[in-house]
Amino acid sequence: MTDELSTVSEDDLHAYADGFLSEADRARVEQWLERHTARAEEVRQWQGQATELRAMFSSYARSDERDRALLSGTSGRDAAASGDRWTLRLGRRIAAGVLLFAAGALTGLYAPHIFAPERSEQVAQVTESLPRQAQSAFLIYASEVRHAVEVGPDQQTHLATWLGKRLDHPLNIPDLSKLGFSLVGGRLLPVNGKAGALFMYEDPSGQRLTVLLGRNPDNRETSFRIDSSGGVETFYWIDGSIGYAVTGEVPRELLQQVADECYRQFENAGEVKS
After folding, report:
1. In the prediction, which pLDDT does 56 show?
2. What's the CA gap between 243 and 219, in Å, rounded?
3. CB 169 within 8 A of CB 162
4. What's the Cα-to-Cα distance from 99 to each of 54, 59, 110, 246, 260, rounded to whole Å?
5. 3-state DSSP call for residue 65?
6. CA–CA separation, 182 vs 87, rounded Å?
7. Are strands 182-191 and 194-202 parallel, antiparallel or unpaired?
8. Nearest to residue 121, comparing CAs of 25, 53, 24?
9. Whole-prediction pTM value?
């Protein structure tokens, strides 16, 4: 398989950032970005900038049925008849931009949400802030010796039931023993202003990692994402009504194994409960 830049075009990257790719193309681009970390960071910045722009203009968002007409073939034929093809192309781009802003559409991890700007802002907030909140929780609690958790590993059933009720979502606590990590315990904490859960694990050397769960207001799904900050790395994803984030200062390969195992156990538990 060639590893040249041409395998993923600039248009592919922009379509990926805007959430317009199919599942297969998105997976292809994500694999390419894993091997091109500089471009991956650039794409992440595009997504962040788009979110900031939407937040700035959200109070002016409006929608009109005529917005869609701007993108129809009728307006295209009129422009073509005038012989101004450049104006046609530019007009379509402007019309598309107006429509997306007016609809409060999401970029990056979600497809556009037409005519629902407030809902879209909620989803963008969850997506952008999940890894940051996970990293903050890790830095605050993983260094604690006596008060790292509220409920210890000897009360796993109580811990899962209690946090599950607060999240209004059945929970099981992942068993990471085969990867060398044992449960330290868990705690309740806020995630985007709602009840969230944090499970903490450590290996025999005392190295710790955390698994954070928070509500996803729009029930949309994402594949695995990676976020790094100051040596702390986070694998995160959204599955149905819950967003998940696995955070630690361990090798990325090990952290990904932990994330894969957590995903598998959460998924299996959901299938059993359903």
Report:
1. 57
2. 9
3. no
4. 12, 15, 16, 36, 38
5. helix
6. 63
7. antiparallel
8. 53
9. 0.55
Strand partners, 188: 197
CB-count exposure of residue 119 (10 Å: 0-12, 13-18, 19+):
middle
Residues in contact with 248: Cβ distance below 8 Å, sequence separation at least 6, in sequence order: 138, 142, 207, 208, 209, 210, 232, 233, 255, 258
3-state class (DSSP) for residue 201? strand
Average pLDDT for the chain:
76
Residue 187 pLDDT level (bands cut at 50, 70, 90): very high
Check: CB of residue 172 under 8 Å from CB of residue 269.
yes
Structure tokens given for 45? 């910045």
Structure tokens at 76: 């295209």
Alpha helices in the chain (DSSP H): 10-17, 23-35, 37-57, 65-69, 73-81, 85-103, 117-141, 156-167, 252-273
Flag whether pLDDT at 52 surpasses 70. Answer: no
What does each C-alpha distance from 27 to 64, 87, 130, 223 come to in angstroms?
A: 34, 35, 21, 9
Q: Domains of the chain, with CATH numbers? A: 5-117 (no CATH), 118-273 (3.30.200.100)
pLDDT of residue 165: 94
pLDDT tens per residue across span 84-121:
544 444 454 444 444 444 444 333 444 343 334 444 44
Of 57, 51, 222, which Cα lies nearest the Cα of 122?
A: 51
The overall longest dimension of the chain from CA atoms, in Å, is 77
Residue position matching structure tokens 């002016």: 60
Q: Can you name the residues that pair with 201 across neighbouring β-strands?
A: 183, 209
Report the DSSP beta bridge partners of residue 93. Answer: none
